DNA sequence: CTGAAAGCGCTAACAG
DNA sequence: CTGTTAGCGCTTTCAG
C-alpha cells in the first residue's frame, strides 16, 4: 500500500480493518473508542512501524508546535544559556525550539525571522540585531507573538525581556565612589550596542549623583575583544595618572583588564559587568555585576507562551535584576 | 477571501488575476513566466502581505527543511558550541535546526528523537544519553539519516563524530611521565560515561607503555562537579604521599583541582582535558588537552548533509584530533 | 508560456 | 461508539 517509504494512517487503518478516523482517535488518545479496536490499531501501528507526520497534523489543525529563537550570536555563551532555558520551558509544554543566529546582522535577522514565520512557529523570541523590526508587523497581526530579548525592538510594539543594565552599572560605580576612588576607568564596547550605552549611562548617573565628573581620558570604548581591552588597560596603567579602579562593562573587557592588571599586580580595584567561568579561581578579589542568565530565557519563554495562550494585555518590559557579588580572592 | 488570518496563494492568485500555479512559479523562481505576470503577482504578494506556508510546501513536496540536534545537556557550553556550529552549517544550506536536550536521560532521548522524526526532520545529530538507539532503526530505514556526536550510538549503525579522547589522554600522561613524574593522580567523572572511560584508558595506556603502574590511591572517580574535584584534590594533597602531577579528565575536574592547588601554591603539575574560559588568566602555567569544539559540530553537520544528499557509503567514525597546549602562567 | 485537477497525510465536521 | 466526507496550503502531474 505504501508507495513512498513511510506508512500512513490510511495504511494503519487498512491493516487494522478500521476507518481512518478511528486510527486518528487512537493516536490522539481521544475517548470513546472500543478497547478492542484500540488494541488492534496499536498492534498495526507497531507492526507497520508507523509514526504520525506532525507536519500534516499541524497543517490541518492549524496548531503550532514549535517556537523560534533568533539570537544575535549563537557562539556567545550568554545567548546559548538563554537558548537552553527557552528550550527547557518549551519542551515542558510539548513544543520544540528552532534556533538560529543573525550574527549581529540586520539583514540576516530579517531573513531568518521571516523564514521562521514561514515555518509557522507559534511565536518568536528575538534578539534584535537591527533597530527596526517593523517587517514583523504582519506576522504579529496574523497571530505570531514576538518577545524581544536582551535589547528592545524597534518599529514594533512587543514584549521585551532585558537585563537591568543601567541599574547594575549604577550600583557598581556608586560602590566604587563610596569606597573613595577618585579615578575610576570605564572600559566598554561600541556605543552602538544597546547594553553598552545603558551601562555607560548607569555609570555616569552614579557620578552625577555624587556630584562628580569622570575623567574623559579614563573612558575607553570600542573594546570588542579581551585583547583590545587588555591593551587599553595597559595604556591606562602606564599613563601619568593611572586609575585606582576600573569598571568593565562586559566580561570580555573584564578578562582583558585582568590580563593587564594581574601580571603586574597593579593596585586597581576591578568591578565587571557579567560573570564568567572560573571567576572563582582568580588570585584576587573582584566585584561582579551578576544576574541569572537562564532566568532571562525562562521569563522570555513564559511571556511568549502567555501570549500564545491568548494574553492580549499591553506589551510589557521585564527588567532582570542584577546583584553585586564577590569573585576570586583566595589567599595566596 | 481569507477566512482565517493569513492570505494564501489562492488569495494572491485571485488578486493578481492569474492561476494558482503561476503564483507558485513566481514564488519558487521557476522559469518560463511572463515578466508582466511576475510583476503582477509580486505586487499582489506585497499588497496582501503574503508569506508562503513552508509546512504545507514540504508536506506536498516531501522535502525536508530542518534538521534536529539532540544534545545530552544543552546547559553545557560544550554542546552549545557544537550546536552553534551545526546551526551555521545548516543555515548555509537554507535549513534550520531544531534543538533539544535529553538532560542525560535515555527515555527523554528516545521521546525527543522520535518527536523530531515526527516533525520530519531531514536528519538527526544525536548525542546518545542511553546506550541503545535501535528505536531509530525504522526512521533510518525510511530515510532519516542519523549522526552520533561525542559518543557512539548503540544498536544502530550510524556515522559518529568523536573527540580523540584516548589519544589526547595518552599524550597528556606520556608527557607527564617523560617529565619524570613518579606520582600522577587522575581525577575523572563516572566510568559510565563514554568519554571518561576512553580518557582513563588513554592514561593507563601511557603508563603501560612506560612499563609503569599508577598508584590506585591516586585514581579518583565520580567527580561530577568542580567542588567534589576540589575536595578530592585537597585530600590527595594532604595525604602522606601527595602526587607531583595531576591529570584531570574534564574541565570541571581541572577547575576543582586548581581551586585546591592555587590557594596553597602546591607544587603539582596540572594537565587537564578540555579548555575553558579564562584559562589564560591563571596565575600558573598548566597544560591542556585542547580540541576544536566547533569543528566537531561542523563535521557532524557535513556528514549529515552528505547523507541527506544521498551518500550511502558505509557508516564511518570521525576522530577529532587533540593538541597539548599551554595555558596561564603569566609572571607574577 | 499557462492553467485545471489531483493529492501530500492528517484532523474537523457531520453523519450513522 | 464508528465511519464518511471535506479540506488545511501547497506542489505536482498533465493538458492546453
Give an account of the 3D structure.
Chains A, B: This is LacI family transcriptional regulator. Chains A, B: It comes from Microbacterium wangchenii. Chains A, B: Keywords: DNA-binding, Transcription, Transcription regulation. Chains A, B: InterPro entries: HTH_LacI (IPR000843), LacI/GalR-like_sensor (IPR046335), Lambda_DNA-bd_dom_sf (IPR010982), Peripla_BP_I (IPR028082). Chains A, B: Pfam families: LacI (PF00356), Peripla_BP_3 (PF13377). With 332 residues, chain A is α/β, with parallel strands linked by helices. Chain A contains twelve helices and twelve strands. Chain A has helices at residues 9-16, 20-27, 35-48, 54-61, 77-92, 106-118, 137-141, 165-178, 194-209, 226-238, 251-261, 293-308; strands at residues 66-71, 96-101, 124-126, 146-149, 159-163, 184-187, 219-220, 245-248, 269-273, 286-290, 317-320, 323-327. In chain A, the strands form two sheets. Chain A has a six-stranded parallel sheet, with helices on both faces. Chain A is elongated and about 90 Å long. Chains A and B meet through α4, α5, β2, α6 and α11 of A and α4, α5, β2, α6 and α11 of B. β2 (96-101) of chain A pairs antiparallel with β2 (96-101) of chain B, so a sheet runs across the interface. The structure holds a DNA duplex (16 and 16 nucleotides).
Amino acid at each position: 500500500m505504501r508507495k513512498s517509504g513511510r506508512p500512513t494512517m490510511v495504511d494503519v487503518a487498512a491493516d487494522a480493518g478500521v476507518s481512518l478516523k478511528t486510527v486518528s482517535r487512537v493516536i490522539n488518545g481521544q475517548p470513546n473508542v472500543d478497547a478492542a479496536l484500540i488494541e488492534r490499531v496499536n498492534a498495526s501501528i507497531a507492526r507497520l512501524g508507523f509514526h504520525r507526520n506532525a507536519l500534516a497534523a499541524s497543517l490541518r489543525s492549524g496548531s503550532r508546535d514549535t517556537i523560534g529563537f533568533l539570537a544575535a550570536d549563537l557562539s556567545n555563551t550568554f545567548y546559548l544559556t538563554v537558548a537552553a532555558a527557552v528550550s527547557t520551558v518549551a519542551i515542558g509544554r510539548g513544543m520544540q525550539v528552532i534556533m538560529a543566529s543573525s550574527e549581529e546582522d540586520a539583514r540576516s535577522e530579517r531573513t531568518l525571522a521571516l523564514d521562521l514565520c514561514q515555518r509557522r512557529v507559534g511565536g518568536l523570541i528575538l534578539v534584535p540585531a537591527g533597530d527596526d523590526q517593523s517587517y514583523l508587523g504582519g506576522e504579529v497581526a496574523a497571530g505570531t507573538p514576538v518577545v524581544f530579548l536582551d535589547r528592545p525592538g524597534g518599529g514594533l510594539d512587543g514584549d521585551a525581556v532585558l537585563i537591568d543594565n543601567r541599574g547594575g552599572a549604577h550600583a557598581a560605580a556608586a560602590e566604587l565612589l563610596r569606597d573613595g576612588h577618585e579615578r575610576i576607568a570605564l572600559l566598554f564596547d561600541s556605543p552602538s550596542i544597546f547594553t553598552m550605552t545603558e551601562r555607560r549611562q548607569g555609570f555616569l548617573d552614579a557620578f552625577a549623583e555624587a556630584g562628580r565628573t569622570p575623567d574623559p581620558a579614563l573612558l575607553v570604548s570600542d573594546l570588542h575583544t579581551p585583547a583590545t581591552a587588555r591593551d587599553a588597560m595597559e595604556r591606562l596603567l602606564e599613563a601619568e595618572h593611572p586609575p585606582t579602579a576600573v569598571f568593565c562593562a562586559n566580561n570580555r573587557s573584564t578578562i582583558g583588564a585582568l590580563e593587564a592588571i594581574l601580571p603586574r599586580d597593579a593596585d586597581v580595584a576591578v568591578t565587571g559587568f557579567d560573570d564568567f567561568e572560573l571567576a572563582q579561581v582568580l588570585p584576587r578579589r573582584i566585584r561582579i555585576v551578576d544576574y541569572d542568565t537562564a532566568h532571562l530565557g525562562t521569563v522570555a519563554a513564559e511571556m511568549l507562551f502567555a501570549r500564545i495562550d491568548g494574553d492580549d494585555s499591553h506589551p510589557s518590559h521585564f527588567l532582570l535584576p542584577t546583584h553585586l557579588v564577590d569573585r576570586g580572592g583566595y589567599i595566596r
